[in-house]
């Protein structure tokens, strides 16, 4: 057997031969060798060649500046890797964080499997309270839900819903037809910069032939094929396989040349790698599932909406009923799930519940597995809390719904309101941020649930977070009203809640500092006490992990360098203070940004300086118990 660079047809030859089997193809039947049949398989390294080396050669020395799939236009001459054609439509995007999702291109796989319901709010939602008398305004909101209503630049409140839908559909249909015609002559609307391109759901069945081919692979079949092929790889093939997969999964972007004589097993290896790629179409993401509601629109399929918290932020996911009915468990809020084989697309519709510009689409073959061990890297909650003094801008905003936080005040007994769909129960109360109040109307079942929970918490100051509200204004009084995706959280363990509580306390009473040094507990717990030198020496000890209490004297507080900063709750950027609010480049204005720390500590004054990162809970105790105390005392 030889493996050589000159093996032309390895990639540039007939792609069907090298490609993945279609749904109608039988695994293993797409390629047979005239020399070696499978029952008498002769793995790489055992096949004879009189002229060339028997050892497969694999080089992975070139970095791909663009990442897999964009690294080389010409992948002939025995280059084994992921061709741009494959990666473009079946990319292996190992998304490890939300940033990756943000950065990833829109992926759409198999239109039949796509969820085409990207609408945002349930038609049957409880809607905005009417500014007049807090009666819900079903008409306005349900029209808003059906349409992509937007505030007209000229001041016209909302477009006529039915017309807007029709026009959109007609336009998209026309663009689809144009695209189909252009495809016939090998062109596309995308070639014309000024021409709009129809949304993916309108492209069903007319995609570019290559894309259509790529989408027609049967994932289940490919998984079985991969298992079969992979289990047959010989040692040499396995080394190359591992190197390629490692590069792809760790985004190293290497280019590999695998060469050898005819019949030595290059194609076999190629098929094994490609079948692996296609079984991991897109990333695996761990996420907290936090919220669920249904949409059911006249022209869209039913769909579950989930809000998923990823490592840095959260995202709106759509799961079609085929997927929901196909899983044998009900996802539970707060649990962590690993999901794979989903699609990522741009947010195109109004009434988003999060500001994230990407959505996840669960496909029929998306996998969702509960993760038992939570490494606590994914936060339990994630909100985009709006500052009260920015709410005026959100009145009538049909783009992004609003999360609010405040102290519950002036709760009225449950009452009933007449609406267009009949009488509905409402719970009315105010929330305060210490300087202003917002009137809140909670509708129907959510109202009963909230009322019950607040009844059980009488006599204490309750801080509530209400998500996905609509904002209205009446007589200069801002009002928030719950909608279908709205949820409430009373006194959740969330930084912003602690901040607000602290702020409210500061406003009402003098700060009391705890003058007990926490290290006093060490005698009780028998935790060993080490000085700084002894702690540093622990680096050389065999102990891998231990709890210590460290007594340190703070000689000075570094005032010049910033050792913490505020970050936006919509994106990871640092925010700056402007007009009593925190403003981010992304446009978000908030009152309760998250804090990030980048402290340094000194082994001794002026000498070795070590950057360390503390998790927030450690810092809070440090701040209240030590740093604040020291500052005040000195
Ligand atoms: N590890 C393996 N286990 C079983 N069969 C194998 C293995 N490796 C290769 N084969 C078989 O050996 C035959 C030749 O392999 P393959 O077609 O991959 O070689 P090749 O190097 O691509 O040949 P050519 O350069 O002529 O295209 C095929 O029938 C293939 O199924």
From TrEMBL:
Signal peptide: none annotated. Residues 233-278 form the DNA helicase Pif1-like DEAD-box helicase domain. Keywords: ATP-binding, DNA damage, DNA recombination, DNA repair, Helicase, Hydrolase, Nucleotide-binding. Residues 1-14, 48-60 have a biased composition (Polar residues). Its cofactor is Mg(2+). Its EC number is 5.6.2.3. It catalyses: ATP + H2O = ADP + phosphate + H(+). The keyword Transcription does not apply. InterPro entries: DNA_helicase_pif1-like_DEAD, NA-bd_OB-fold, P-loop_NTPase. GO terms for biological process: DNA recombination; DNA repair; telomere maintenance. It comes from the Eukaryota. Residues 1-60 are annotated as: Disordered. One of its GO terms (molecular function) is 5'-3' DNA helicase activity. Pfam families: PIF1 (PF05970). Belongs to the helicase family. This is ATP-dependent DNA helicase.
